[in-house]
Batch of 3 targets.
Target 1
Amino acid sequence: MQTIWVVTTGGVLSGIGKGVASAAIARLLKGNKKIVTMKCDGYLNVDPGTMNPVEHGEVFVLHDGGEVDMDFGHYERFLDVNCKFEWNLTSGKIFDSVITKERKGVYLGKTIQIFPHIVDEIKSKIYDIAKKEFADIMFIEIGGTVGDIENSWFIEAVRQLRNEVGNDKIVYIHLTYIPYLETVTELKTKPAQRDIALLREKGIYPDIVIARSKFELTPKIKEKLALFGDIDAESIITGKDVDSVYEVPLFFRDQNIVQLLNRKLHMKHKEELVRWEELVNTIKHPEHRIKVAICGKYTELHDSYASVIEALKHAGAHLNTGVDIVWLETTDIEKNKVSVKEALKNVNGVIIPGGFGSRGVEGKIQVIQHLRENNIPFLGLCYGLQLAVIEFARHVCNLTEANTTEVKKTKVPVIDILPEQKNVDKLGGTMRLGAYEAVLLKGSVVQQLYNAEKAVERHRHRYEVNPEYHQILQEKGMVFSGMSADKRLVEFIELPNHPYFVATQAHNELTSRLEKPNPLFYGFVKAALKK
């Protein structure tokens, strides 16, 4: 089968859901095909690993250790695949590659320019991946909006694809935005008209337009867009706001997007989404509801914890349970603005996710102590495990000065930097990243949840439980329910005689899928249901 290409662009403004739309369409076309999902980002960073999550959203870590845009989370959750770092192209990566080649004399003395050298490098990377992966369908999402300077070379690269792969092997899908003006109670198409016109000026004529809107588009609005965008009205689809992103494939299916793609690409595809639809209905109409507090550092931007939120939804869907999230800023506890008991009032369970630095740490430790002593379900992720160890060391092992060397120098460094990290002076891509195997303790809560002898989860950290304190922690009752293959590093901990006190050095949220929830999240939601 010759590779089919699906290119997604966006306009008017960013954040209108290109990643979700791409993932949803890919899910509709999946079947037994090999689908590769690429994302092209215009920023000059090599990857988003050093970006503040408040600025860019969650950094999504892949199985191979790549730190990528959070849209890859949508791709993986919708398609149940493990994406690869090379599938995320950034201007930083492309420019670095071209400059390296120039220094090596690859271009034989030519003047290096954006066009053609940068554009050719982008196309070369795309074609290499398609060939290497034996891709049946290549999805390419262009980040940002049409007209941005920093994505212009990506736009030009995908424009050239049409001539090179053939008009019947590529489809261009464009997301635009139709604002609703409350003052005149009317949807306005002018921004979308200009947006599509700008895309056409770049040489790309969209085959399908998805118009993001608060409301369903009327036939009159579709006809207006069709007239000024030079596109069939039936190829204009409403991207209406929905309660759950997992509704999007169903919503697109009901608007005949598969038939449009079949006609354009000469396919005969039909996707069955029976189980998917059942789970979406459960998300929308759960039999039970629980309230979960997330104690994070970046609570002002919920996208910083997108995968945690989605993992809770996945587990809830399989337990017929809706999860209401309470965002808890633990600095308020540190400053005595609110007591721990008051902050956790009516909460069925608490998650402390990954993070860095000292802000809010003592408040989180107070929260963990309260959870441990009052039998409230707890799930710690990465930093959450480390803080759970500090709390246990202080209040159960009587190591009152126990702390992490990430926060400050201490005489009792129960959490310390990995030996191989001590001489690292660069931040980007230098942590313990990607998938690592853990050997599970037979009969432990974690082992029973995985129902396996080993577990593979993704990591993103520099610090670990200090081996010098392994013995005292275990003697005082902490169970190391998962260790690294070489038995040096603690991967999972739990406490016996507690409804659910489990933590992991990994980021288990990254491997959760709607159709296959992560075991630790499933166990957590199940325990919280009983609280």
Target 2
Amino acid sequence: MGDKPTDLQKIRGIVDYQFGRGAGEGLFPDRVKIVHSKRTGRIRHVYLDENRLATLRPLDGFFSLTILGAKRLLTHLTPPRLWVRVQKEAEPFIVRGKSVFAKHVIDADDEIRPQEEVIVTNEENEVLAVGRAMLTGREMKAFKRGVAVRVRRGVEEEVKNTDQDYNKVREL
């Protein structure tokens, strides 16, 4: 019989499946801290140096990224996957957590499917937000109306919540 995989191997495997081969090691180095749910004992959050990188969603078993997690993924994944590039005029709204409309999408990964976790970037490839795709990557580029990405957290929101998040980790 084979050895039981470690928590680190499990989360890297999930991220490799979700974002592509090699994403797990790029997002989660060996020194990450894995926090389990007190109630269920299952993996819940992954931290690096007191900063949350991702949260494992219990409903579908995939990860929701934080801004820091998205930045790590973009820098460690070549070529990057599951990204949406937006116009400069939409940036001020997106960084505050507002949805991305299809008319503001300049380009997007053709492999994006609805309900997948995506990284929203500007034209300089800087992370603006993370969220959930509402359309396929091709539809985002073709459509001129409708919500392309429902943003969960923008860069400005992340800065506000970092102190609260850090205090929660210290209590664990």
Target 3
Amino acid sequence: MIVIGGSNSQDLARKVARKLKANYRDLVVRKFPDGELYLRLPPKVKGQRVVIVNTMHPNPNDALIELFLSWHTAKEMGAKKVSIVVPYMGYLRQDKRFHPGESLSNHLVASLLSPDFCLTLDPHLHRIHSLKEIFKTKAKHVTANDVLGDYIKKNMKGAIIVGPDGESFQWADHIAKRIGHHAIVLKKKRFSSRKVKIVVHSDVPLEGKTVVLVDDIISSGHTMLEPIKQFKKMGVKNIYCMCVHGVFAEGALKKIQKLGAKVLSTNSVNNPVAKIDVSSLIAEQLR
């Protein structure tokens, strides 16, 4: 087996290769003066099982083309089996046509990312329940809930697990049950991608406690910012924001930290707070 690290995921790919005791190579990626991508795979992939790892943040458009070109090239070079690992898969949220002419990007992206096997972590699925509904080849998603739960259990004794909205409650509830902690869910009303109102209703006393806000992804951060403000008013002692995918668009990380909350994510996306390693979780799916 050869594990190839794309430009966004070389550190994670190296860790996955070590877990699998597999050979590792970087994918050579450069840009031509006109902005097009140049890719070069390691030459000896014929007859080999090839795993290409590349997450889709930052620069999701380049990352998508990089994945598409690399897995096709590996197949053309005679690889026995080509798998791609896309820890954070972009374009999945656009799954319904609200206005005439809008593209359903989740189906279109799935058609580009269809080698022998595709693996992703905690995809942001709204109106579909499985990748099988949009992928024509074998695709699987796994959750990092247990990895997050184990981290909380080890490092945050007695924490109260909070889902900042109804969609996130599946993560919060799973983690809370795994570690035997309380879980509460907040009510969210979204007015736009940047304007959110959060209502805190809890029968669990929060004053002087440690709370952990858990979600699959932190992008703009607005879903986290409002509850942090309210928890501070309620006398919460320690506030953590934890996610699988730390995208942190538009300076979200600094905004959250400025309010005094501590932030943690997995290393599905490279960022300054990616302290929770998911390489073992990924490797287990590739054995």
